[in-house]
């Protein structure tokens, strides 16, 4: 039988704050406690569970596998408790901050223009948006939601499909005049292909043949950038070929700054876009659920 003198919800709440705020000091401010009291509470929780939840260092605390699992379950339980309290108080209006991580192009083109409408619909919610093309860990980044394109890796995260975007290979007219136009994916071996700083120097681009067969091609180049918009700029400057989303270069194609190549191999190559979040069984804080429902209804990616 569970001891009545143990406030499990309080322990969970403090532990979640340590994880999301990045340490004892920040969590202590959030919980109106001293860092020493927070440290003792986490140690007491670990002793009661009989397992280590955090690996401590002088600068930060990292979750152990057991700690990551306990964190995810705690978030779900606390969200359910929060929702129960709101329902009991006859208040369903979302409150609090939603932290969103999104790749640069989808964020700039689709997400940011929608925020004014979302905030007007939910005045009790604030939104923090972090734009990066690098895939981040939601827990370490303290994000509620991440918007990701491409295939999803197996994980404990829950995914909600938002749409898909078509991939293109583009280059400037000046680059193609100097280096020639590739006719097949194999021709890319003779071209400079632009990449991202968080990818290895030897990259692989995927194509689809006329009969639907995948064609993976290893490519390389001598210029990379940190996000898709910067890679687009490098292509416009004539530094090489870039594989980007149609939405990112639609205006450049229309105005002739970039030209599309290998179209017989690319049009069927669709990249799915998902919103992913920590949570199971659909139990989310009302602020996150409201944001997810809004995205599903209004984020139209093409």
Helix content: 25-40%
Compute the gyration radius: what is it? 23 Å
Unreliable stretches covering 5 or more consecutive residues: none
CATH class of the largest domain: Alpha Beta
What is the CATH topology descriptor of the largest domain? D-Maltodextrin-Binding Protein, domain 2
Biggest pleated sheet: 7 strands, mixed
C-alpha termini separation: 55 Å
Return the CATH architecture of the largest domain.
3-Layer(aba) Sandwich
CATH superfamily of the largest domain: Periplasmic binding protein-like II
What structural class results from the helix and strand content? alpha/beta
Which overall shape is indicated by the principal axes computed on the Cα atoms? elongated
Strand content: 15-25%
Secondary-structure blueprint of this entry?
Blueprint: H1 8-21, H2 24-31, H3 35-49, E1 54-56, E2 61-63, H4 65-88, E3 96-102, H5 104-111, H6 115-121, E4 125-131, H7 138-141, E5 145-149, E6 157-171, H8 173-179, E7 195-196, E8 203-208, E9 214-219, E10 224-225, H9 228-236, E11 242-245, H10 246-254, E12 259-261, E13 270-278, H11 286-298
